[in-house]
Design goal:
The chain contains 8 helices and 10 strands. The chain has 261 residues and is α/β, with parallel strands linked by helices. The radius of gyration is 18 Å and the shape is globular.
Length: 261
Amino acid sequence: MKLRLRSHSQPDPDQGAAGPVSMHRVSKSYPTGGGGAAFWALTDIDLTLEPRTFTAVMGPSGSGKTTLLNCLLGLDKPDSGSIHIGGTDITRLDETGLAELRRSRVGVVFQAYNLLPSLTVADNISLPLRLAGEAIDPRVVQRLADSVGVGMALDRRPAQLSGGQQQRVAFARALVTRPELVVADEPTGALDSASSATVLDLLRSLVTDFGQRALMVTHNPAAAALADRVLFLSDGRWRGELRGASAGEIAARLAGLGRDR
């Protein structure tokens, strides 16, 4: 089934993607213990995410992908460099400001869904609004649930849904605040092939139909092939990018990361 998203708010397709999202010369290190030299997880990372674009990040285990996401989401503070979301340098925010940013300006979709089992689908979708103390319009929740294909399940609990349906609920929750960036961390890692295809089509539609800006970390070349560009990370440094590449070309480039440095 091919899902086509419809705006759940006023018809302003660029509203959710407004403002710059960028990282400039970001470096992050961690102590190794025993008085040894620090381990540099990221080194001089530059990244610009344009409105209405879908970017995939790939790299082997230990390449720095998790650290990249943690810095972008304000979960880790870089040693140096700046990270801007909507004109705000998030490296200058305190914990309260970072929590507000994650709640209202960045939508995150995890591999494990992270839905609250005691809440209904409707309450899971509207949770970011509730945490922010904002009014919840049931009509908005219904339209958003319809857009991602779970409109008939608003009164159900997550355990009553398939994995693919739970991931769609997670997408709806990520969109409910009209964020400036949607981040997907291995969004198909726990799904079967059919559900994965549906979720990836939904992610692509976030950009094409919903005007969002999306960043996905994945190990799957077929998933990355749906992105506008694929960035390759290894040993905490960018190792090039591909645009409009096939899954086979992406897999070959990924396999060659250890040989072309």
